[in-house]
């Protein structure tokens, strides 16, 4: 959907990610083709894929991603049906069919997972996954994909996680340069917060470094 923000869309985002030495996860709903993004720069890329009722379509997409040297498939399995997004209904939001000729899937499945805050957005209310994982004592935390605006938010969530909407904002303001600036700002803010907290590495950030609203409430009891 990046062309909603800038004419170059995901191609500009891919180039910025490559310059910043980070990984772009290209969405199946991308407004650029797999081939366009793959040929835009030489960098590691992942591809996000939903499960289709027609499994042959999923297999076709995977093969396209493989041919274009995507390194991993990020399989989305948590949103089989979208909630009623009233804001989109009021705004008459509509996105034309994606420009890619088909869909992609990957050669190797890696033992990993990414947790995205799509459940809360589907319901238009938010229960942060991080609180659920912390309450269960899960460690280490898997990659998360909530809305990050500040580098200190990245610190709170225990590492350089996925960045979603801020990338779109930067893309809308200044294209590839805007995306690159957003990544640099978040990285700089994260490093500063780590330095002020005495954490030389993201591996040194623990649950004990973070105080949540729930912690404050408990301390007053």
Could you explain the architecture of this structure?
This protein has 221 residues and is mainly alpha-helical. It has one domain (2-220): Aldolase class I (TIM Barrel). It has nine helices and five strands, in the order αβαβαβαβααβααα. The strands form two sheets. A three-stranded parallel beta sheet has the order 1-2-3. It has a two-stranded parallel ribbon with strand order 4-5. Strand 1 (24-26), helix 2 (34-40) and strand 2 form a beta-alpha-beta unit. Helix 1 (9-19) runs parallel beside helix 2 and helix 1 runs parallel beside helix 8 (165-197). The protein is globular and about 55 Å long. Residues 95-111, 118-127 and 141-149 have low confidence and may be disordered.
Structure characteristics:
221 residues; TIM Barrel; three-stranded parallel β-sheet; oxidoreductase activity; DUF7699; FMN_HAD; Aldolase_TIM; oxidoreductase
Topology:
Blueprint: H1 9-19, E1 24-26, H2 34-40, E2 45-50, H3 55-67, E3 72-76, H4 86-90, E4 115-116, H5 118-123, H6 129-135, E5 144-145, H7 151-156, H8 165-197, H9 213-220
Parallel strand pairs: 1-2, 2-3, 4-5
